[in-house]
Amino acid sequence: MKFCANLSFMFTEASSILERYALAKEAGFKAVESGFPFGFTLDQVKEAKEKSGLEQVLVNLKTGDVTKGELGVTAVPGKENEFKDNFHTTVDYAKALNARKIHIMVGKLENATAQNWQTYENNLKYAAGVLKSENLLGVIEPINQYSVPNYFLSDFKKALEIIKRIGSPNLKLMLDVFHLQQISGDISHSITNLMPYVGHVQIAQVPNRNEPDTNGEINYKYVLNHLENSGYSDWIGLEYKPLKGTKEGLSWVTNYGYSL
């Protein structure tokens, strides 16, 4: 198993995502993933990443003002050009950081219609073409309604249907076990059935989104072993909120028999 730090959730004792690259390196990580680095230029982020010597695995789509809950316009008719602009900007960042994966966030919508679903699929088709030409991988992630009310994509079945219809090797599923448990449960069978379409995995304990070994619903010793036995050998993003300090909370890694 290979674990990468999510800089949007971990090392928040540093105010800036730029500073978190160095802290992740200091903690022993070899790789990181992150949300889109709002407020910083491509050159600033690239310099921080290169100074740390870490690999950048994934970056989230540029979505708008996240402090206002803007998580993307991928399913909004009439905003296709805004989506394309944000997507191309994210591709530029991903290439500069040598990140192969982009999480294509979709956004929050109330009372979604068939037109929203069609717009979403059309935008994903467009993205898949760009990703193919750039040799990048896009992933889409169902997010549970408890964590992000009204998030447009909160159904693994629908996500899988869209991925199958588009049929691109450059568009796959983000399997966040934290969301999987709260959306549908049945983790063991879901991992087995979804694995052929999985492009990235993330983990956190349910319900409080802390370290995998904290009190909660998921037996991560079993889940991590099952992921490995199901053929997953790529990076696993640690998208959790450390219960105390980030470094202190990493003791679970060695306790579970792994290393960073």
From TrEMBL:
What residues form the catalytic site here?
Answer: 141, 239
User: Which segments constitute the Xylose isomerase-like TIM barrel domain?
Assistant: 22-255
Q: Name one GO biological process term.
A: glyoxylate metabolic process
Q: Does the keyword Isomerase apply?
A: yes
Which function does this protein serve?
Catalyzes the reversible isomerization between hydroxypyruvate and 2-hydroxy-3-oxopropanoate (also termed tartronate semialdehyde).
**Per the similarity annotation, which family is this?**
Belongs to the hyi family.
Instruction: State the name under which the record lists this protein.
Output: Putative hydroxypyruvate isomerase
Its gene name is LOC113499205
